[in-house]
Amino acid sequence: MKTIKDKIAKLSFVALLLAVTSAMFYTPTASAHGEKSQAAFMRMRTIHWFDLDWSKDEVAINDTMTISGKFHVFAGWPETVDKPEVSFLNIGIPGPVFIRAGSWIGGQLVPRSVTLELGDTYEFKVLLKARRPGDWHVHTMMNVEGGGPIIGPGKWVTITGSMGDFVNPLTTLTGETIDLEDYALDNVYFWHGLWMAIGVAWMMFWIKRPMFIPRHIAVTSGKADTLISAADKKVAIAFAAGTIGLVMASMGSTNEKYPITTPLQAGLMRGIKAIEMPETSVAVKVEDASYRVPGRAMQMTLTITNNGDSAVRLGEFNTASVRFLDADVLEDESGYPDDLLAEEGLTVSDNSPLAPGETRTVEVTASDAAWEVYRLADLIYDPDSRFAGLLFFFDEDGNRQMVMVDAPLIPTFI
Amino acid sequence: MSASQSAVRSRAEAVQVSRTLDWMILFTLFTAVLGGYHIHYMLTGGDWDFWTDWKDRRLWVTVAPIVSITFPAAVQAMLWYRYRLPFGAVCCVIALMLGEWINRYLNFWGWTYFPVNFCFPSNLVPGAIVLDVVLMLSSSFVLTAVIGGMAYGLLFYPGNWPIIAPLHVPVEYNGMMFTLADLQGYHYVRTGTPEYIRMVEKGTLRTFGKDVAPVSAFFSAFVSIIIYFLWHYFGRWFNKTDFVSGEGI
């Protein structure tokens, strides 16, 4: 009986090992960037990305593509997130599959952190050069010190070719043309190899003789002084002198070889130019807003006043990069990511043209599975249950006006 | 075999066992230090050691020696005072650099494709050799702390300059000046490391013109002396035999 038990135990153990080992072979690619996990209020009430354009869906190694568009820095920035006084326009990709060949905000190159003003809208562009083949989810991203990464919409881009063909040529101010991809790599290997060899030689000098037990016996029996000979001291002095000499000589020769070097460049960039947004002639007051949990829909009661001189209609509600469109007013032609686009997700109780001078109260419903898929419904669990987003109104000529909305949100569970 | 009988039957066998134990202890020490020192250095030196665009003339020069003299001081305390073996510091930095190279090559380059010329580790060997030699010649941990610790801090920047100097050559890019190291940091996207995290060229050392590195190195050297004392005592404390039972230890 005991033998059978032992066999079962042994086989169970083997089975467990096999199961654990085989589980290691299932390693699916992690291709997302955690955008759905970020608190909904952060995506809704900080940076609003719009008019985005990924110039290509497929790009060959060494070719470039751009991501361009605009972002609005929400005036009602949440208290729990530090204000974007130190921000960095980043790009959300899995490592350097592209190199960032350039990034601009308001036409200014922004290789360093910038200060953004609440309530302003900025134009941006990121130039990417393809480096590593594969299918990559490419996100816009704004890092805010004290706030973390605020990720924008992402789109799949395919890079074709071989990484071995990638080059990153540059001409320095000293006139030398280099490939930054492997520039000075031999130099790195040489010096590290040399110094490690010297270090190992020093160790070998001591390791080659008996070490721990005999030396410990000698030390405990009061014969420690006999363990270091005069010859040992000479060798040690030679190592120390050689080390200092090599450091000085290599520094001197390096300064001769590279007479012009500069310190690392750093510092905050202020005064980034915002877009001069046209004066809005549409006034919107949010009377109430609720999120219907079973229906995955947000309902707003809006009182809209048209103070302009042409009739307007509501075409889009954009929040946390999810775009809810009224298909009768607006059709997306930008190739916006499908999962973030609710082409018929916006319903307005009366979306007939709002004449100049007219005021109307309407029920607006933004419904789509994206509320669940992008975990925006989790907003109801946030400590400050408010929503925010951009409303886009269009006149008969297609002119667009952007209006920011921000109001408390009440969940309904039945 | 009774407890009073020896496990070895001849002097030759005893020597063989002793050498086997030497290699086993050395291997264990080397790998334990590799792991512990590596984690310590990544947590305290971290990005300054990871990226070329963090290797500046102020903070990298200051931080790296201070946080890296720790394990060498502790291991020296053990190897010297118990065995009169003067390679504790070098053993530590060789273990650390080997671990770092494995990490940079397999992880940074092999998994995430950051070029090796952007993420190579700092060179700590010159200071470690001098630290060991000072201990051996003086047999005094006070002198080792003061002279060796000072040398450890001072040798760090010149010992690394031949490696990083090519990456401090300036380049004009889209109307702005960068060093090549800056441009590496800009080009090779680190989604989780925004530019403002980078702690370089900060501080108030503005009265020394462009010659900031020596001042930073001296400051680092002074603090390295203090840290050496502290970690020497850590080493001594861990080196006690109170933790194991048995007679004749």
In percent terms, what proportion of residues of chain A is strand?
Answer: 35-45%
Uncertain runs of chain A: none
The backbone outline of chain B, from C-alpha atoms, is globular
Radius of gyration of chain B: 21 Å
- Beta-strand segment tally of chain A: 21
**Binned strand content of chain B:** under 5%
**How does CATH name the architecture of the largest domain in chain A?**
Sandwich
Overall CATH architecture of chain B: Up-down Bundle
**Unreliable stretches of chain B:** none
What Rg of chain A is obtained from the alpha carbons, in whole angstroms?
A: 32 Å
- End-to-end separation of chain A in angstroms reads 60 Å
SS field, number of helical segments of chain A: 6
Order of helices and strands of chain B: HHHHHHHHEEHH
CATH topology of chain B: particulate methane monooxygenase, chain B
What is the topological layout?
The complex is a heterodimer of chains A (414) and B (249).
Chain A lengths: L1 H23 L15 H5 L2 E8 L3 E3 L3 E10 L13 E6 L5 E8 L2 E2 L11 E10 L3 E11 L3 E13 L8 E3 L5 E3 L5 H23 L4 H9 L9 H28 L24 E11 L4 E10 L5 E8 L2 E4 L15 E2 L3 E3 L10 E9 L2 H4 L12 E10 L4 E9 L1 E3 L2
Parallel strand pairs in A: 2-9, 12-21, 15-16
Antiparallel strand pairs in A: 1-3, 3-7, 4-8, 5-6, 5-7, 8-9, 10-11, 12-13, 13-18, 14-15, 14-19, 17-18, 19-20
Chain B lengths: L10 H34 L2 H4 L8 H10 L1 H14 L4 H24 L4 H4 L5 H14 L2 H24 L5 E4 L2 E4 H8 L25 H26 L11
Antiparallel strand pairs in B: 1-2
Helix pairs in contact in B: 1-3, 1-5, 3-8, 3-10, 4-5, 4-10, 5-7, 7-8, 8-10
Features:
heterodimer, A: 414 residues, alpha+beta, Jelly Rolls, Helix Hairpins, Immunoglobulin-like, five-stranded antiparallel sheet, 21 strands, B: mainly alpha, particulate methane monooxygenase, chain B, two-stranded antiparallel ribbon, 10 helices, 2 strands
